[in-house]
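Action item from last meeting closed. Structure (420 res):
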């Protein structure tokens, strides 16, 4: 019988399919454990079917249930348990530890999954954190904002994808988003802690460091949309930064990894500068997984290093895969944002986009007939295009030009957008 790896849940970004493909290429059987298989997007079901990956129902909120399901599926042939989905990395790490299988320290992953945990760990490293306060009511949020001075950033402690993250320019905005966070019991089935993070607003550019085993491997530049939201609209790899600035970014990320105790496997570490001169870097987040938004694909195209394959190799105890030949010196992804509300009526220009210069991937995540109301988060994106180029700016130009060829028709619907 083939060795089996169980992946806990599946994001919509393609990371799960990439992981399953790598494992299949090495001869492993892959099973996706899903709490509600009937809720999986059709494109995920189609992709996994093509790879030969099975979908099995399981209570993925429980490490004990995951252990029981994995052992029932594979028995002595269980080679690994892990997750590439942000909301399930902790429970997967707990299950792997219970089974004495390779994986990150559960306490480190747990710390990373809470912005409160990251900030508490960062407090022990001078100059790592921005100014911040953790509060549990609106009065506390207003007090923290007044002490820091406007604008400030208000965010929940346990979500991802910029969900409910807002720049607030006055007390009215702080009150509104704090009330919403504190009044929301769960989001997409994930229980929300009744805690709000109030942070100083950093005016400089933001980057992410793609890391493995505690060491930075490269820097990704990020482009976000209109404030007060932080919807990510583009990424470029490798980022175009001066050598001294690059060292600052990587050093800050690695200090963050040491602070939270994450020294096994992949990490996606976000760093932002307090000033536009890029002199004062601050740690934003440590994500104990490969980057989302197809960032690993950008890294693979530009360097030949497959971070997802490297992660899966670590999970099953295989040697680190050798890098392939890079497709181009740089790669970028450009997202297409949705309107505030609407019913998707038509999709055109896909082949035109695929024929664009340097284009390697065009993906539409919604289907005709879907009804959408904006959230003010990374969910508000209907499509993406990945392209390569001789430089990061060229790659982004190619991706943007191709994305502009995509045309979506939207019919009006009743009701306001859902974001706050």
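Sequence:
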């Amino acid at each position: 019988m083939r060795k089996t790896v169980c992946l806990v849940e599946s994001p919509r970004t393609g990371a799960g399919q990439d992981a399953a493909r790598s494992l299949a290429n090495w001869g492993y059987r892959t099973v996706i454990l899903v709490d509600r298989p009937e809720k999986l997007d059709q494109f995920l079901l189609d992709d996994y079917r093509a790879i030969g990956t099975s979908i099995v129902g399981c209570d993925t909120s429980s490490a004990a249930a995951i252990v029981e399901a994995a052992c029932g599926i594979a028995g002595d042939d269980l080679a690994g348990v892990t997750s590439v989905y942000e909301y399930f990395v902790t429970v997967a790490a707990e299950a792997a530890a219970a089974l004495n299988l390779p994986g990150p320290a559960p306490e480190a992953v747990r710390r990373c999954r809470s912005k409160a945990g990251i900030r508490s760990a960062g407090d022990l490293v001078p100059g790592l954190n921005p100014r911040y306060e953790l509060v549990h009511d609106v009065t506390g949020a207003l007090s923290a904002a007044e002490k820091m001075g406007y604008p400030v950033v208000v965010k929940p402690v346990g979500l991802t994808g910029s969900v409910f993250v807002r720049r607030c320019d006055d007390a009215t905005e702080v009150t509104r988003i704090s009330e919403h966070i504190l009044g929301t019991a769960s989001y997409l089935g994930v229980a929300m802690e009744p805690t709000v993070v109030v942070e100083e607003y950093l005016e400089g550019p933001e980057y992410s460091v793609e890391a493995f085993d505690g060491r930075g491997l490269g820097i990704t530049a990020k482009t976000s949309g209109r404030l007060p939201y932080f919807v990510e609209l583009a990424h470029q790899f490798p980022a175009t930064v001066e050598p001294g600035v690059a060292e600052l970014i990587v050093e800050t990320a690695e200090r963050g990894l040491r602070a939270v105790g994450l020294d096994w496997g992949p990490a996606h570490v976000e760093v932002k500068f307090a000033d536009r001169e890029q002199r004062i870097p601050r740690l934003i987040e440590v994500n104990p997984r490969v980057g989302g938004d197809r960032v690993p694909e950008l890294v693979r195209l530009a360097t030949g290093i497959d971070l997802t394959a490297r992660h899966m190799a670590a999970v099953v105890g295989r040697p680190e895969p050798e890098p392939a030949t890079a497709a181009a010196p740089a790669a970028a992804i450009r997202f297409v944002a949705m309107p505030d509300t609407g019913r998707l009526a038509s999709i055109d220009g896909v082949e035109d986009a695929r024929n664009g210069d340097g284009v390697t991937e065009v993906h539409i995540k919604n289907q005709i007939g879907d009804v959408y109301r904006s959230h003010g988060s990374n969910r508000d994106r209907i499509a993406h295009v990945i392209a390569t180029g001789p430089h990061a700016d060229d790659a982004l130009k190619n991706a943007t030009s191709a994305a502009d060829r995509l045309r979506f028709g939207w019919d009006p619907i009743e009701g306001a957008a859902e974001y706050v």
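Note appended to the action item: The two ends are 52 Å apart (CA to CA).
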